[in-house]
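Severity: low
Component: inverse-folding endpoint
Summary: output formatting inconsistent between runs
Steps to reproduce: submit the following structure tokens with default settings.
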């Protein structure tokens, strides 16, 4: 892998994942103080990105795994997760004075929740990756994939660093149960807004 490919891959990865950094940081912050939450967030991010990469590689090889007209419908996943998070936030608010709150509600984000949001929000990634991977050949695809997976770790480190910033942590600590449903629902509606009408 030459330096030119490394720079191109890093720039492509950064451009397609900067929008997900805020959501990732939000997940990290909501998991603060909960055992295993950071690991679950990292695992979820890797699972979601691995699914994006698998679809991109399949499409670059000529296989239509996910038709373009169906990609926007992935918005249903973050929308459903956002509505569920909103419902949980309402229930937590109602039981805030309870002396024995349900610990499961406070366990932080789950790996599959993070993975689902990452994958659903990856439509732009797929669109950007496919032509590059298609032109790269087999060896180039392996190199790009390896570098992308390394960069996921960098993304997680940056997201964790952002989550540790006092202002961000205080804001999410106070408003996180409202911010998470709002962000997820916004992502879902944004994706659905680009859905092609069925004919």
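Observed output (run 2 of 3):
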């Amino acid at each position: 892998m030459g330096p030119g490919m490394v720079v191109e891959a890093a720039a492509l990865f950064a451009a397609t994942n900067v929008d997900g950094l805020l959501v990732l940081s939000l997940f990290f912050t909501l998991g603060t103080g909960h055992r295993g939450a950071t690991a679950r967030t990292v695992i979820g991010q890797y699972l979601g990105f691995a699914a994006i990469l698998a679809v991109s590689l399949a499409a670059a090889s000529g296989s239509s795994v996910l038709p373009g007209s169906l990609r926007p419908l992935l918005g249903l996943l973050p929308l459903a997760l956002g509505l569920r998070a909103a419902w949980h936030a309402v229930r937590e608010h109602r039981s805030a004075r309870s002396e024995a709150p349900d610990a499961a509600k406070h366990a932080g984000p789950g790996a599959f929740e993070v993975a689902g949001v990452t994958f659903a929000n990856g439509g732009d990634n797929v669109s950007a990756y496919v032509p590059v991977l298609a032109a790269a050949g087999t060896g180039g695809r392996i190199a790009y994939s390896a570098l992308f997976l390394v960069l996921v770790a960098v993304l997680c480190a940056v997201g964790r660093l952002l989550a540790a910033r006092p202002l961000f942590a205080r804001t999410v600590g106070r408003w996180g149960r409202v911010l998470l449903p709002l962000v997820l629902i916004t992502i879902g509606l944004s994706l659905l807004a680009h859905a092609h009408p069925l004919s």
